[in-house]
Amino acid sequence: MKTIYMDNNATTQVDPAVFEEMKPFFTELYGNPSSMHRFGGQVGVRLKEARARVAALLNCEPDEIIFTSCGSESDNTAIRSALNAQPDKRHIVTTRVEHPAILSLCKYLEKKDGYEVTYLGTDENGRLDIQEIKDAIRPDTAIVSIMWANNETGNIYPIEEIAAIAKERGVVFHTDAVQAVGKIPIDLKTTPIDMLSLSGHKLHAPKGVGALFVRKRLPFRPFLIGGHQERSRRAGTENTTGIIALGKACELAIQHMDEENTAVRALRDTLETGLLAAIPDSILNGDRDNRLPNTSNISFGYVEGEAILLMMDQLGICASSGSACTSGSLEPSHVLRAMGVPFTFAHGSIRFSLSRFNTAQDVDYVLETLPPIIKNLRKLSPFSAQKSAPACTKSFSE
Ligand SMILES: Cc1ncc(COP(=O)(O)O)c(C=O)c1O
């Protein structure tokens, strides 16, 4: 059975060109870039090239890039660095729709270390209110951390505007751009962001490599302490194969982003329009006009998302309900709850996230197979009984 992979916000296929580029670093180029000998030194030279490629995608300086192990490490490093560099400031501003890499850390910092956190809400389309961001910043705010694009809905936030507000108020600004990098243009020369997180496996590099942009002269406190790698900003022998791969993936993103976005958006739109037309009681979640070109989050009312996923899985289709990190629990997604999506719809939400490796045949297959799945599940669903009653509009405040 063919696999139709539409779960690219969870992780992506390693691009064959990326794989080719990293191969020699498993076999002949295995030296340690910190070694004094030329054998290790040549790897160091290639890491430098990779750093320049990542910086080129973001339009920043290569030495503003710190390689990490993943997006979560970059996020944790950014927040903790800002807090440790400003010990007199005890307040954080973030949103209710962040990835757990930010949200769980903030909850931990509140509970264990006594920090105060303001969690900004959204409207029903998942949009933030700029005035609320301005109002939330206080004299003791150490950092504002707001994601660039949401992993569940694909919503793109006005990061240029938010970064400018933080700069004007003299507050450190971090953005989790894990879903944005490689999918939309980012220009750190013109956007006053202090720190930005990215993750290799979301842009066709392998798992286990990420990066944190830290603007020159921003006071920085390392998260991992030890050796002098990454100019003493992140200890640990570099994941050389991963870094080389990330560099290549960034180069490919620079070369192909525009044409790929057009193609992926067209596939996504055909899928989305077809599903919404064919399946009654289905709604689009998120900001229709301002989201990633690859993402479509649709709620199929009165049916369980997990059941839909299982049925699709049997037919070779991979997608997500909620985010990959929260599926496995029967709680509806925190993002949809923050948007006030009614219970009977939040439970039946499916995220389709496409990539350059999807085809028109993939979309046709999903359009053929999903409507009958939903129809059959609705016959069995306990939620169907609620259809005649008004949909529960409980808002899922935490
Ligand atoms: C928005 C966002 N931030 C952070 C992460 C965590 O990235 P990683 O899996 O590389 O730790 C993810 C992964 O799903 C994400 O989507």
- CATH class call of the largest domain: Alpha Beta
Question: Strand pairing plus helix content: what structural class?
Answer: alpha/beta
Q: Enumerate how many helices there are, as a single number.
A: 12
Order of helices and strands: EHHEHEHEHEHEEEHHEEHEHHEH
Strand order of the biggest β-sheet: 2-8-7-6-5-3-4
The main β sheet shows up as: 7 strands, mixed
Instruction: List bound small molecules.
Output: pyridoxal-5'-phosphate
Identify the CATH homologous superfamily of the largest domain: Type I PLP-dependent aspartate aminotransferase-like (Major domain)
What does the model show?
With 398 residues, this protein is an alpha/beta fold. The protein starts with a strand and ends in an 18-residue tail after the last helix. It has 12 helices and 12 strands. The chain has 2 domains: 138 residues, Aspartate Aminotransferase, domain 1 (Alpha-Beta Complex), CATH 3.90.1150.10; 238 residues, Aspartate Aminotransferase, domain 2 (3-Layer(aba) Sandwich), CATH 3.40.640.10. The relative contact order is 0.16. A 7-stranded mixed sheet has the order 2-8-7-6-5-3-4, sandwiched between helices. It has a 3-stranded antiparallel sheet with strand order 9-10-12. Pyridoxal-5'-phosphate binds next to helix 3.
